[in-house]
Design a protein that fits this description.
alpha/beta, Rossmann fold, DNA polymerase, domain 1, 2 domains, 6 strands, 15% strand
Length: 211
């Protein structure tokens, strides 16, 4: 079935932000005596924030009560905003514009809250998306298929009519369970961790030809 839509993850796909997410998590939990490896964070990319926070607290022997989870994540957000320096991946803007000109519908599915998406993407990029599913728009985050199923519903297309661009295992699992095809980019993790995707590429420059 011909492709009608291309759906993008944001962090690690369009925006070079994962290094800052990793550092923010580590800076938040280190004073609590919890050391989190880079890989543990990259592997969870796209997961709902409250799930990651609870699991990291449990790693340190803490009981993840709601007040504690909210307090810790608030600190994590503060640190991220303090250290983050926006940088769009080379070729991202051009790829979005090119796909739009060719008649594809465009979607964005990210665990990042909508207000932060507006700070990380340019207004011109945001205008290119037909639908955006952000953190807080779903009850369950990646690897559950709900985020991508919601995007497909809003786009009014069948799963087999969409291609998803992802960069992490949870995102790949999420879109595959939703029934879409997946192209993974090795911006965050090596190819061996992205085997669930249909195709793995090293940059966005390779995506246009595959779509």
């Amino acid at each position: 079935m011909p492709t009608k839509a291309v759906i993008f993850d944001m962090d690690g796909v369009l925006v070079d932000s994962m290094r800052y997410h990793v550092l923010a998590w580590q800076k938040t939990f280190r004073p609590l005596g919890v050391d989190i490896t880079d890989h543990e964070i990259y592997a969870r990319e796209g997961e709902a924030w409250h799930k990651s926070t609870k699991d990291f607290l449990r790693m340190g022997g803490y009981r993840p009560t709601r007040p504690l989870v909210e307090k810790v994540f608030k600190e994590r957000c503060r640190i991220f905003k303090e250290i983050f320096r926006p940088r769009i991946f080379r070729g991202a803007k051009g790829l979005l514009r090119s796909l739009k000109r060719e008649g594809f519908k465009l979607g964005l599915v990210t665990a990042t809250p909508g207000w932060d998406v507006k700070k990380m993407l340019t207004p011109a990029m945001i205008e290119l998306f037909d639908v955006m599913v952000c953190g807080g728009d779903t009850k369950k985050g990646k690897p559950h298929p709900e985020p991508y199923l919601k995007a497909l519903k809003r786009l009014k297309i069948k799963p087999e009519e969409a291609v998803v661009i992802e960069n992490a295992p949870y995102g790949i699992t999420s879109c595959k369970l939703a029934g879409t095809r997946c192209i993974a980019v090795t911006t965050s993790l090596p190819k061996k961790y992205l085997k669930g995707a249909d195709v793995v590429v090293d940059s966005l420059a390779e995506v246009a030809d595959l779509v």
